[in-house]
């Protein structure tokens, strides 16, 4: 889930490049540089099966923790402050932990760009704020990608600060290289609890957290923290066993869309089309868009990905290239005048889900495989935990890729030992018996997500067995086919 993109460099200021058009130009320039850098990088290794809880208890300390990784880079508090003329509010960073000292000039400049980006994504609505007496806190996330392709996750919780009378909300934002939404939501609960007592209470807790080792999948780290009047508390932070799903909660996706609607969105995403999600709540947008990207596993969305588009960057909807965008409903009119895209309304009060569509979405996926996905999804009703639900949903869509393109490795040929492999595209799709599946695969292999996947396979050493969940599922499927064939005879 790490390969998700938005752009800290694409942050316009009122002084440069003339507003929205300038923002879009900078966005495009960032993307060109980013795509070049991305192709030169080696993809993170595919996650393999994690040890079960019983095995995890017996592993040594170094296997229970991810070596050298901090929970987070820094925490900032973003407050809404009146502009000089007093006519509106603008977001400003009012607290940062830890302070970044000893940086050279270019590092400071990059840091300032990142901090500017954070304020923009914490308050994407722009300047339209007024003091409030009540505000329901919300948690959401975004991704910052630098020109060199390095990625960082932003986790944000907005709430009304302590005090009396009407006041604007403030945002707490944690920047981390780690993608684990549930874990950081729990951390925010602890931060919020301390903020209600005093801002000074946040520092010792975050210091302890920063010093703590980051747990490996399926493991727990405990943080001791003292709170006046409550005493010392022990906070347990556990990572899910299925680490590639730890940034995802499929429950939100299926509470907003029916199974058939999810299939249509998946069909559009798998062919790398332009898709815009519409909702009022920032948390809904970020959770749904990350869930849709996770459905593509083991493939990775290679194009523009912005879970919450700041109002000042709304012109990105005009980009001709594929994207996954989250847009607040009040900006719907800025989106619906576009064509050749899918606009998905996630709101509770919607009159129809697909506000704009191309019209062929129902015919993209092979009918038999659509039915099989529905059958697996129907078993999720009796799953009680987020982890169980995530496993059922991911299994349904993973099996789709196993059955459509799981035979890929047989069609990567090597001319000599040590040489690079060559994928025999035509032979690959002609080997598929089903006409509807073959038609789908002919289209899917034209996408950048499949192209990058195969490039990485071609670069592997001849004879080296792939590893990871996808390969494991392919072997299981092939064994089952052999077994079924034997039984018939």
Description:
The protein is of the alpha+beta class. The longest helix has 21 residues, at 19-39. It has three domains: 74-239, Longin module (Beta-Lactamase, 2-Layer Sandwich), CATH 3.30.450; 250-368, 3-Layer(aba) Sandwich (Rossmann fold); 385-487, no CATH class. It has helices at residues 19-39, 53-58, 61-64, 105-122, 181-195, 202-211, 250-256, 259-270, 282-295, 367-377, 386-405, 425-430, 435-444, 448-458, 469-488; strands spanning 65-66, 74-82, 89-97, 138-145, 151-159, 170-176, 214-215, 220-227, 231-238, 274-279, 304-306, 323-328, 342-345, 354-356, 412-413, 422-423. It is globular, with a radius of gyration of 24 Å. Helix 7 (250-256) packs across helix 9 (282-295), helix 10 packs antiparallel against helix 11 and helix 11 (386-405) packs across helix 15 (469-488). The strands form five sheets. It has a five-stranded antiparallel β-sheet, sandwiched between helices. It is built from 15 helices and 16 strands. It is 38% helix and 18% strand. Residues 1-62 have low confidence and may be disordered. This is DENN/MADD domain containing 2Da. InterPro entries: cDENN_dom, dDENN_dom, DENN_C, DENN_domain_containing_2, Tripartite_DENN, uDENN_dom.
Relevant terms:
five-stranded mixed sheet, cDENN_dom, Rossmann fold, alpha+beta, 489 residues, 16 strands, Beta-Lactamase, five-stranded antiparallel sheet, 15 helices, globular, 38% helix, 3 domains, 18% strand
Binned strand content: 15-25%
Taken together, the total number of domains comes to 3
Structural class: alpha+beta
Helix content: 25-40%
- Output the CATH class name of the largest domain: Alpha Beta
Largest sheet: 5 strands, antiparallel
| Overall pLDDT score | 81
Measured between the Cα atoms of the first and last residue, the distance is 43 Å
What's the CATH topology name of the largest domain?
Beta-Lactamase
Domain UDENN: 73-466
Pfam families: dDENN (PF03455), DENN (PF02141), uDENN (PF03456)
Keywords: Guanine-nucleotide releasing factor
Region (Disordered): 34-60
